[in-house]
Give the backbone structure.
Amino acid sequence: MTAGPASATRPHNRKQLIVEAAGQVFSERGYHAASMEEIAAGVGISAAALYRHFPNKYALFAECANIMVDRLVAALDEWPPEAALPDVLAALARVTVAHRASGGLYRWEARYLDRDDRRLLRAKFGQVVGRVTELVGREFRLPEEGLRAVAALGAIGSVTMHHTSIAQRRVEEMLVASALRVAATDPAAAAGSAGLVELPAQPVPRTRRAEILAAAIPLFARDGFANVTNGQIAQAVGLAPSAIYRHYPGKVDILVAACLQAAGLLAQAVDRSLHQATDPRSAVVALTAAYVAYSFEHNALTSVAEAEIVGLPPDLQRPLILAQREHIAVWEQQLRLARPDLDRRQARLLAHAGLGVVVEAGRALRWRDTPANRDAVTALVMGALGT
């Protein structure tokens, strides 16, 4: 009996193709908004064929969450213990850039993994961080080698969070150079910068609508938007669940209000930081210190805005994406004034690298909001930017 045309042309790497397509959909749309039908269409197969490889969406999601870190571990394993830090970072950058469309999944969506799968993922990332920390400590004898290593990886990993288009080899070179500068930065280099920042205060909830928003933000940050119910939000405010609808048409409207509040507070912080800058470099320092301070002080709000925007309907996403682009445009402009050697795309790439440093260094510090921690992260971001 001969095989039919479909089986004859079936690619041998179909499972790999499915994981690649799924990783991109999960990264772009979020775990809960993604569908198996959409993923199957991206591979050119039916949903039924997809289920022959993965029994459910969660199994496919867990595979996607693990595959990127497995690639990083494999890249590290190719280098002996005595390998030089630049070579190892280059290997990690090569893998990350090659899979940038799906590689950002772990940053926000991994919170939807169950406890055992999260523990496994953390252990694998621990291998990567441990190896890089050892090399950073050996290469640059400065304090906080663990923080510098995590921040350097944040600079490289930032490429998975945006779509700036530059030749792949050039992206790798710039990310490795940025990560090396981070690794070589003394975290005390920006001592005192935290004291220069005056952030706008988060609005005091004076209405029931504002109270609902203030109660929802930490719940979204802790459990993920999709896992939080209107009942939980209502209970936090002391309302009956049905009372929520008198103030917000639905839960998604609470999320949009949170994202808009984050965008507004960040825009105010940026405006204040740049107002007193006297030259291009001081403007970049002020912008960096303000963003770091904002990230520490409004961490729950920031994480909600960054993590959940991908799951919003396109019409609700649009004003939030525009706000993000305007923010990056400020970084791009200030960086090019401080570093005339950069073109627009290169400045944008480095701006994202700096923001990636904030995310990973902040997480490593468990977002403990102290002047010393703000100063340390500010110094590492300045290293990433090359200013």
Notes: The radius of gyration is 22 Å. The chain is about 70% helix and 0% strand. Residues 154 and 168 are 18 Å apart (CA to CA).
